[in-house]
Amino acid sequence: EAGVAQSPRYKIIEKRQSVAFWCNPISGHATLYWYQQILGQGPKLLIQFQNNGVVDDSQLPKDRFSAERLKGVDSTLKIQPAKLEDSAVYLCASSPPPGTGLNEQYFGPGTRLTVT
Amino acid sequence: AQSVTQPDIHITVSEGASLELRCNYSYGATPYLFWYVQSPGQGLQLLLKYFSGDTLVQGIKGFEAEFKRSQSSFNLRKPSVHWSDAAEYFCAVAGYYNTDKLIFGTGTRLQVFP
Description:
The structure holds two protein chains of two kinds. Chain A is mostly beta strands. Chain A contains no helices and eleven strands. Chain A has strands at 5-7, 10-13, 19-24, 31-37, 44-50, 53-56, 65-68, 75-79, 88-95, 106-107, 111-115. Chain B is mainly β. In chain B, the strands form three sheets. In chain B, strands 2, 5, 6, 10, 11 and 12 form a six-stranded mixed beta sheet that branches. A four-stranded antiparallel beta sheet of chain B has the order 3-9-8-7, with no helix packed on it. In chain B, strands 1-4 form a two-stranded antiparallel ribbon. In chain B, strand 8 (64-68) and strand 9 form a beta hairpin. Chain B is globular, with a radius of gyration of 13 Å.
């Protein structure tokens, strides 16, 4: 089966610009996650969707970050305006519906964002 | 609050040597624990997980981990390391109120010399 797809793989922008990342989860996976991984740190959950509803966005900086999952499949994460400290790898993950594979998250390759 | 500590930032071993990567957690109940591996330019791959039962867990690629409640540890081991094991390894614990939320440690980078 195809894995989690993300694009673009790399992005360089200047501070105060906006940027968007796209994620296509594994087919049939109901839950989708966006993580931020800053260099030298472990991934940190930004937002979790169950189908097209938000389950957890407690660590999402809502003044500049937004995410949506239209139709419960693909998802987009946006940053507007970007700051230098947003430089990181943004990972998308998906997991099967509840009861079919507890906590097994499948990760995409990530988008490396550099803000200059 | 839940947290994970990986005390070793960087470990270097010779190919064929044994390996142990340390992980300590902070959690208020029986935790769900995970080890992930991240190769350069790739996403994270699940090596193994512990939910309950046998405290010695077998994973993929010849890895195993042992849950020790008394030491709040979940160390990852491999008896003989291969050059292809060079990567970054992350220990994670599931959140207390949201068990789908993974809380990761800072990772251990493994370098393997021939």
